[in-house]
Amino acid sequence: MHDIWNPWHGCRKCSEGCENCYMYFLDRMREQDGSRIYRTKNGFRYPLSRNRQGQYKVRSGEMIRVCMTSDFFLEEADAWRDEAWAIMRQRKDVKFFLLTKRPQRVSSCLPYDWGTGWENIFFNVTCENQRRADERIPLLFELPFKHKGIMTAPLIGPVDIGKYLAEGQIEQVMCGGENYDGSRPCRYEWVKLLSDQCQAHNITFNFIETGTYFIKNEKVYHIPDKRTQSRQAFRSGLSFRGKEIRFRLTDEWGYDIPEENLYVPHYHPVTCRECGSRLTCNGCSDCGKCTEK
DSSP character for 67? Predict the structure, then answer.
């Protein structure tokens, strides 16, 4: 996928949402060990890669999700993080989506010139249940980031975040059910509560997928295909576009980049039309895989 940057791979499980980790499952399918943590060879400098014309492959204005097969604030990655920060510092024209289950480590892992935060960093914490929401969101509020969000995935229990949304710091909430080995069910009313609370505060809510088991009106739906999960999440009507998140993106000299020069996502007329992630994704990368037989 063109919107993912994995400078390192592998992780240690640290909370309830890690129990059936998708990365561990996919690594097992490749006969690999998900607990083995290593710096990626070909992917570490991905945001700086260029095409034959000398232009960056990742265009100004794109949103790049960081460490989707690890945790950016993992202790074992301390030796590599400064170099990763340096890449994000160089690409101040790109938005970087950081997600962690370890907000307690963040303050000691910020770069020397962080100040009150960088404009191109979107920091998110995972809250898979109420316990983790009440533990991690207060820590999130104490950290110096310009843009903050919440990821309730895998959603394995009801989560009430109304009082946190009222604080005015959260700009986006994402939600999804659990997949692969031992998937725990996600319930419609849990997602609906989050959707209603986000709408009440005009905050974007993105229900990206139902998970393998989805319960509505006490009927259990078994949905093993992820494309179907995404389509059903889209059709639920629970996603909501709230107040626009405005990032101040600059060029290498620190000048603001005009809106007309920023990347504008485009979408495949068929495969993207009912995609649950459409609200928050980078659009179609024209990879051609959707047309492969």
Answer: -
Q: Is 57 helix (H, G, I), strand (E, B) or coil?
A: coil
Report the alpha-carbon distance of residue 67 to residue 65 in Å, rounded.
Answer: 7
Number of neighbouring beta carbons within 10 Å of residue 108: 8
Q: Is residue 127 part of a domain?
A: yes
DSSP 118-153: -TTEEEEEE-SSHHHHHHHHHHHHHS--SEEEEEE-
For the stretch 106-132, pLDDT in tens is 999 999 999 999 999 999 999 999 999
Q: Which of 63, 82, 57 is nearest to 7 (CA)?
A: 82
**Cα within 13 Å of Cα(260), Cβ side:** 0
- If one counts the domains in the chain, the total is 1
Instruction: Examine residue 29 and state whether it is found in any structural domain, yes or no.
Output: yes
The low-confidence residues of the chain, meaning pLDDT below 70, are 1, 288, 290-293
pLDDT at 1: 46
At 286 the pLDDT is: 77
Show the tokens assigned to 277: 């992630």
Note whether residue 103 is domain-resident: yes
Rounded Cα distance, 70 and 10, in Å: 5
pTM above 0.90, yes or no: yes
Q: Please check whether residue 226 lies inside any domain of the structure.
A: yes
Report yes or no: 125 and 138 within 8 Å, Cβ to Cβ. no
Domain that holds residue 76: 4-244+258-291
Run of H or E residues at 172: strand 170-176
**The residue to which tokens 């945790």 are assigned:** 71
Chain length of the chain: 293
Q: Structure tokens of 167?
A: 């604080």
DSSP letter, residue 185: P
